[in-house]
Design goal:
about 210 residues, about 75% helix
Length: about 210
């Protein structure tokens, strides 16, 4: 049930800022971090709604100026509070745009930190909400591609190790067939990494077009 009471003055101060004033919003919210950090419950719907606006704009502003670590921290706090209180105020998750806005930031932030698994989960959930959003699709495809390519450093490292090993033990092994397997395996790892890096993305693009 929605009731209306006098709102804390912290919200009045927040509403004085233009949404494009990222520095101003960040400074204001950082001066009120004690309130934001300890906010766990709400007096009523208006309190919940105003706090939602403030914390989401705080996250967006932090992301825009590159304060990614702090942005993730408050994106997680916002999502946790939203999920815990939406039923209390009879709000449908699909209709609460602040949730999806902060989840979008969270997906991009994890991407920037090369946490591709978390980024993928975020954009998969976003696409379950808005399946026609091309921006979400691009971010998801990029995160999947980056995740796959991230294993290449291990493949190349393994190949280099095997090639060096084959050079070191050359002439020191009695079994010539086992020796030959070492550089062959190293070469195979290089080929796999190259295919993973340069070919698979093109195949995926071709399949989507066809």
């Amino acid at each position: 049930m929605k009731t209306q009471t006098e709102l804390p003055k912290i919200y009045e101060g927040f509403y004085e800022f233009d949404t494009n004033d990222n520095i101003g919003i960040i400074r204001y919210c950082e001066s009120n971090l004690l309130y934001i950090d300890n906010k766990e419950s709400f007096k009523d719907y208006d309190d919940f709604f105003c706090f939602s606006q403030m914390i989401v704009q705080f996250v967006i502003s932090l992301e825009k100026i590159g304060k990614y670590s702090k942005a993730i921290k408050y994106a997680d706090k916002a999502i946790s509070l939203f999920e815990a209180n939406l039923n209390e105020y009879e709000i449908e998750l699909n209709d609460f745009n602040y949730y999806w806005s902060v989840l979008t930031s969270k997906g991009r932030l994890h991407y920037e930190f090369k946490e591709y698994d978390k980024s993928i989960l975020a954009f998969e959930k976003l696409l379950s909400w808005d399946s026609d959003n091309d921006n979400f699709k691009l971010w998801l495809d990029s995160a999947i591609s980056k995740k796959r390519r991230s294993i290449n450093k291990y493949l190349y490292a393994g190949a280099i190790f095997l090639l060096i090993l084959s050079y070191v033990i050359k002439g020191q092994t009695e079994n010539i067939y086992r020796f030959r397997l070492i550089p062959i395996t190293g070469f195979f790892l290089v080929v796999v990494a190259a295919i993973n890096e340069f070919v698979i993305d093109e195949i995926v693009k071709w399949r989507k077009k066809s």
